[in-house]
Design brief:
With about 230 residues, the protein is α+β, with helices and mostly antiparallel strands. Helices cover about 25% and strands about 45% of the residues. It contains four helices and seven strands, in the order H-E-E-E-E-E-E-E-H-H-H. Strands 1, 2, 3, 4, 5, 6 and 7 form a seven-stranded antiparallel β-sheet that branches. This is JHBP domain containing protein.
């Protein structure tokens, strides 16, 4: 699948084992992203840095909280295992499924809203960890010609993420009141399934945004001819 840098594998669409080659190249390429590749405009996945994410309070009963995160670092994405990888040039789609042992998002945070029936507010450091999860993303792409070469631009059709466990930790809630902070973290973790269900689209959106940025950066620099022929 991947070329331009020596650490990535290339697959020819005409070879008999094209699908198997593409699958193996996707898994191998993911494991190589523990460092940045400046020539491809691809940052390191260990960690991956996100400047800012805002999540508006939804209508869910468990986690109706305005969330603002800054200076985030995402750990563990490069340890995912690819279980399905399908690149369809006729339908212009990419389908990728994978398992991840652990993904953690550490940020500066600001919260204001309600968790279950409890009012909550504060700002400080936070860490949200997703354990033993499954994720699937379906992408569509368009082709564009540039200097007689073909480049791809991806958009997301669907993204789903299902962890077996989510843990939350927020420092300095309620202006540093340790008792209230500890109790709130306890409530979050004891009710993680309900909290995640209310906010799963927002949490998944963070990972989805990262994946789209990575793949679009790559295919805006590496043509189809370079990657697959």
């Amino acid at each position: 699948m991947f070329v331009s840098a020596a650490n990535f594998h290339k697959c020819n669409r005409q070879q008999p084992d094209w699908k198997e080659c593409a699958f193996n190249a996707a898994q191998h390429g993911l494991t190589q992203l523990n460092r940045a590749y400046d020539e491809l405009n691809i940052p390191s996945l260990n960690p991956y840095e996100v400047k800012e994410v805002s999540v508006a309070a939804g209508s869910g009963r468990s986690f109706a909280v305005n969330q603002h995160y800054r200076n985030c670092k995402v750990y563990g994405l490069n340890n995912a295992n690819v279980t399905t990888f399908q690149f369809d040039f006729e339908k212009k789609t990419m389908n990728l499924n994978g398992l991840f042992p652990e993904v953690s998002i550490a940020c500066d945070y600001e919260l204001d809203g309600k968790i279950l029936v409890l009012p909550v507010q504060g700002k400080g450091r936070s860490e949200i960890t997703f354990k033993n999860g499954w994720a699937a993303i379906l992408l569509s792409f368009e082709e564009a010609k540039k200097k007689r070469r073909t480049y791809l631009k991806f958009t997301s059709n669907e993204f789903v993420m299902k962890p077996e466990l989510v843990t939350f930790h927020y420092d300095n809630l309620f202006n540093g009141d340790k008792t209230l902070t500890d109790n709130t973290n306890k409530v979050l973790n004891e009710n993680w399934e309900a909290v995640f269900e209310d906010s799963k689209d927002d949490f998944a959106g963070i990972v989805e945004k990262i994946f789209l940025e990575l793949i679009n950066n790559f295919f805006s620099n590496v043509s189809v001819e370079e990657a697959f022929e």
